[in-house]
Amino acid sequence: MKYILITGSEGLVGSEAVKFFQDKGWKVAGIDNNMRSTFFGVEAYEPMITLDICDQEGLEGLFQRFTFDAIIHTAAQPSHDWAKKNPLLDFKVNAQGTLTLLETARKYCPNAVFVHVSTDKVYGENMVTPLEELDTRYNATTIQGFTETIGLDFAGQRSLFGCSKTAADIYAQEYANYFGMNVGVFRPGCITGGRHKGAEEHGFLAYLAKCIKENKPYHIFGYKGKQVRDQIHSYDLVNAFYHFIEHPTPGAVYNIGGGPERSVSVLEAIDMIEQETDGLCKYEILEGRKGDRQWDVHDISKFRKQYPSWEYMYSLKDIIKDLSI
């Protein structure tokens, strides 16, 4: 029997990971403290184990009870907008919490495979490319998606959320490099799926579907609604984690997303969800948000080359259907 620790186990990715690994026959310890209810006002759930990742004493007690073969760290404060309201708590959760978890793992189970869920927001302004404006979206003219080679140095405009996640990202890499731990870093953009508790400040596609289904007004922030994001379903992301856990590459960093085939603008998403639900979106275009991007699409060829047996289960159409139920 293999044991896995999943932080943020009541969130989108965490809850998907709990089910995925239970279905694989793993023994799962899921920890959460329902902070997303505080962050976004979404419904709170009863976690398997109520524990804050910043609680070092509590984490040590957990690691003394279980010897984990793997750890998936999804717990985070995930919103740009919320981070600017409370940057100290944002840093505590994202940076300090990650470091506390890494150090506890090093102390009690240094051979465990550790998957750190980072974000592409660590790239800041480096994630830019020439674009052309079309009727419903912006399109890149020279690349299909961003690779890991664009780098983190002098990125600027990361947002405060991007800063705290960058600190966590670098610590995760260094625990692999300095201590020889089996740590892998995944940098997704938009993760979604039917489990997503969409809120205006986080998870645009799920929240958009919610607004259309419930006939609520939706706010588009800047770029005339033509800004593009590629979407990856939480199942496909967790399956990528599983492939890494089975054959880890210590210190590796991967951009992970839906790629060009699962890219969609806000205007295009509105049209697709309206067709799927027979609803109508009442939207208003507001001023853009600082640090936001016009085009955010991932080149995941590095991960696919190293893990060729991994495949997507969800197309963009499948994702829209899942959100529209």
Q: Helix count?
A: 11
Oligomer: single chain
Sheet having the most strands: 7 strands, parallel
Q: What is the class in the CATH system?
A: Alpha Beta
**Helix and strand composition category:** alpha/beta
Percent strand equals 15-25%
CATH T-level topology: Rossmann fold
Mean pLDDT: 93
- Envelope shape: globular
Strand order of the largest sheet: 3-2-1-4-5-8-12
What layout of secondary structure does this protein have?
Elements: E1 3-7, H1 12-23, E2 27-32, H2 35-40, E3 49-50, H3 56-65, E4 70-73, H4 80-85, H5 87-108, E5 113-117, E6 131-133, E7 138-140, H6 160-179, E8 182-188, E9 190-192, H7 204-213, E10 217-221, E11 228-233, H8 234-246, E12 253-256, E13 263-265, H9 266-277, E14 282-286, E15 295-296, H10 301-306, H11 316-324
Helix pairs in contact: 1-8, 3-5, 5-6, 7-9, 9-11
Descriptive overview:
It is globular, with a radius of gyration of 19 Å. The longest helix is centred in the N-terminal third of the chain and has 22 residues, at 87-108. Helix content is 39%, strand content 19%. The protein is built from 11 helices and 15 strands. The protein has one domain: 3-Layer(aba) Sandwich (Rossmann fold), CATH 3.40.50.720. With 325 residues, the protein is α/β, with parallel strands linked by helices. Strand 1 (3-7), helix 1 (12-23) and strand 2 form a beta-alpha-beta unit. The two termini are 35 Å apart.
Question: Summed up, what is this model?
Answer:
The chain has 325 residues and is α/β, with parallel strands linked by helices.
Looking at this protein, list some descriptive labels.
alpha/beta; 4-stranded mixed beta sheet; Rossmann fold; 325 residues; single chain; 7-stranded parallel beta sheet; 15 strands
